[in-house]
Amino acid sequence: MIEVSHFSKTYAGFKAVRDISFHVNKGEIVGFLGPNGAGKSTTMKVLAGYLPPTDGRIKVAGYDVVADSLEVRRRVGYMPENVPLYTDMRVDEFLRFRAALKGVPSKKVKDRVERVKALCHLKDVQRKIIGTLSKGYRQRVGLADAMVHDPDLLILDEPTIGLDPHQIRSVRELIRDLGKHHTILLSTHILSEVEATCNRVLILNRGKIEASDTPGNLTRLVRGGGAVMVEVNPNGTLLKQAFAEIPEVDEVEIVSENGPWVTAKVYSRLGAGGDIRDGLYSVIQRNGWGLREMSRTRATLEDVFVELTQD
Ligand SMILES: Nc1ncnc2c1ncn2[C@@H]1O[C@H](COP(=O)(O)OP(=O)(O)OP(=O)(O)O)[C@@H](O)[C@H]1O
Ligand SMILES: [Mg+2]
Prior knowledge:
- The chain is an alpha/beta fold.
- It contains eleven helices and 14 strands.
- It folds into two domains: 212 residues, Rossmann fold; 89 residues, Alpha-Beta Plaits, CATH 3.30.70.100.
- It has a six-stranded mixed beta sheet with strand order 6-7-8-3-9-10, with helices on both faces. A four-stranded antiparallel beta sheet has the order 2-1-4-5, with helices on one face.
- It is elongated.
C-alpha cells in the first residue's frame, strides 16, 4: 500500500528526512514513532500527497505521489497534526462539504456522512458550529473528515492528542476496528496505544529509520528484556560486586534503598531469551542474604523508544 524508496525531504537546506526506505502492506496498522522533530509529520504529508519529496520515489496505493497526487489523495484519508477545520460551519454541513470536495458522488454523500458521524460518535454535536466544540470533539470531526470518502489508507498524525482517557480508548477501538478493512499509518507519542493497536512499529529518529518490527520483537531486542528486579538484604556485602561475578550479568543498577533492603535491577547479557534468576539466587543463598522479591522485568515499547532514540 505504501512503498517508499530513498525518500529525503529538505526544508530550505535543512534535512528533515534523510534517505529513508520502507513499505506498508495492505491491511497493516503501523505505528509511526519518533521524538519531536524526527520527521514524522513531514513524511506523512508527503505520503498524503500534500508536500512534494525532495528526493526518492514514493508510491501509495499503486500511484506515484508526485505524478499522480490526485489519485493518491482520492485513496488516502489524511488527518494532519493540527486539524484545519472550517470553524464557522456546522459539523454536518462541514462533513457534507468535505465529502463533495473529495469526490463522493452526491447520491452517496448523505450515507457516508451518517456513517462517519456514527463511527466517530458525532451525532450529539452534528448541528453545532465547529468553532464552539471542545478540542476532543474537533479532533473527532478531523477523523470523520479523513474517513468520509472511504479511503483505502488512513494516515493519522497524532489522532489522540488532546483527548481524555475515555476518548483515547474509544479512538483506539475505532482504529482497531477500521484496521480490519483499512491500512493505517498512525503517529503518536502514546506508546501503550501502539502496543494495543499496531502490528508493526516504525521508529524514526533525526530523519532516519531506526527500527521496523513488531512491538513484540522490538521489546525482545532491548537490554531491559531479560532483566531481573531483586529486593535483597546484602548484609553489608557489596551487592554489585557479588552479582557481577555471574558471567551472564551485564550490569547491576541500584534502584532504591530502604534501610538494609536494596532493590536492584540486574541486566542480563542473554536478552529476553535467557534467564539469570538461578544464578542470582545462588549468590544470594551463598552469601546468606535476605530475599524479599525477585522477578523478571518485561521491556516496554518505551524502553525500546528510549534506547533507540537517545543521543
Ligand atoms: N515548513 C517547514 N519549514 C522548515 N522546517 C520545517 C518545516 N516543517 C518541519 N520542519 C522541520 O523539520 C523537522 C521535522 O519536523 P516534523 O514536523 O516532521 O517532525 P515530527 O516528527 O512530526 O515531530 P513532532 O513529534 O514534534 O510532531 C523539524 O526539525 C522541523 O523543525
Ligand atoms: Mg509531528
